[in-house]
Amino acid sequence: MSVKAVLREELRVYLDRELDTARFHDYCPNGLQVEGRERIARIVCGVTASQALIEAAIERQADALLVHHGWFWKSEDGRVTGFRRQRMARLLAHDINLFAFHLPLDAHPLLGNNAQLAVRLGWSVTGQFAEQGIGFVGVPPAPTFAGELVKQLEQALGRTPLLIGDPKREITRIAWCSGGAQDYFEDALATGADIFVSGEISEQNVHLARESGMAFVSAGHHATERYGVMALGEHLAEKFGIACEFVDIDNPV
């Protein structure tokens, strides 16, 4: 099968429209973050635009990187020195585009991290909650128990999640939000769910889980955010006939 190419501008416009980037107030710019070559035939997808992923893209002669965690976060030092210079220098030297989508890729109803997590666990989505609708609410295929749900997550994600709560608690309604969404625990509690699944947990979440009776599962930030960018890459490959390869840079968090 021959690999086609798409113009960078055509891809940029399509991605911004498909992911509805304009409606999100985010901590970083979404979309094309670093401009590379004009024609894109090969994309490497990954969770974070780290040095390791950049090297993987160079090795595969990629024209673009497509990630969930890009660069230029509001809270970080904006100077291009040290590791930031090293990353950018490698990207620019090889004329590779960098596309990054943060909250838009969490919230997308089909290709997003939370939607894809539901696909892998067999959960049915019934609604969304929290800031800008990035958290999801749904039901399991059949009533289950917290301990069993954790086992299902472990099998699906290849990680051992941390459960705070009674393993024997019956679960009929689930709230979830991938990545570092532990601050949405009270929003999840307001949905009436029996359990909240996120990527990370903070110290105060343990006490709130114990006192509220709602179980909390920390399943891994990286582990819960692999599938959105993977699905988006597969979608682009089918639509434009380009090559998209997901590269999983191991991250234990």
Q: How would you sum up this structure, described in words?
A:
The chain has 253 residues and is an alpha/beta fold. The strands form 4 sheets. Strands 7-8-12-13-14-10 form a 6-stranded mixed β-sheet, with helices on both faces. A 5-stranded mixed β-sheet has the order 2-6-5-4-15, with helices on both faces. It has a two-stranded antiparallel sheet with strand order 1-3. It folds into 2 domains: 6-106 and 226-246, Udp-n-acetylmuramoylalanyl-d-glutamate--2,6- Diaminopimelate Ligase, Chain: A, domain 1; 107-221, NIF3 (NGG1p interacting factor 3)-like (Udp-n-acetylmuramoylalanyl-d-glutamate--2,6- Diaminopimelate Ligase, Chain: A, domain 1, 3-Layer(aba) Sandwich), CATH 3.40.1390. The chain has helices at residues 8-18, 51-59, 82-93, 103-107, 113-121, 146-157, 185-190, 203-212, 221-224, 227-240, and strands at residues 6-7, 31-34, 39-40, 42-48, 64-69, 97-100, 124-129, 135-139, 144-145, 162-164, 170-171, 174-177, 195-198, 215-218, 243-246.
Compute the average pLDDT: 97
Assembly state here?
single chain
CATH topology value of the largest domain: Udp-n-acetylmuramoylalanyl-d-glutamate--2,6- Diaminopimelate Ligase, Chain: A, domain 1
- Tell me the fraction of residues in β-strands, as a range: 15-25%
Number of beta-strand segments: 15
Question: Any idea how many domains?
Answer: 2
Q: What strand order characterises the main sheet?
A: 7-8-12-13-14-10
Q: Could you spell the SSE succession in H and E letters?
A: EHEEEHEHEHHEEEHEEEHEHEHHE
The 3D shape can be described as: elongated
CATH H-level superfamily title of the largest domain: NIF3 (NGG1p interacting factor 3)-like
Number of helices: 10
Task: Indicate the radius of gyration in whole angstroms.
Answer: 19 Å
Enumerate the spans where pLDDT stays under 50 for 5 or more consecutive residues: none
Q: What share of residues is helical?
A: 25-40%
- Biggest beta-sheet profile: 6 strands, mixed
CATH class of the largest domain: Alpha Beta
The end-to-end distance, rounded to whole angstroms, is 37 Å
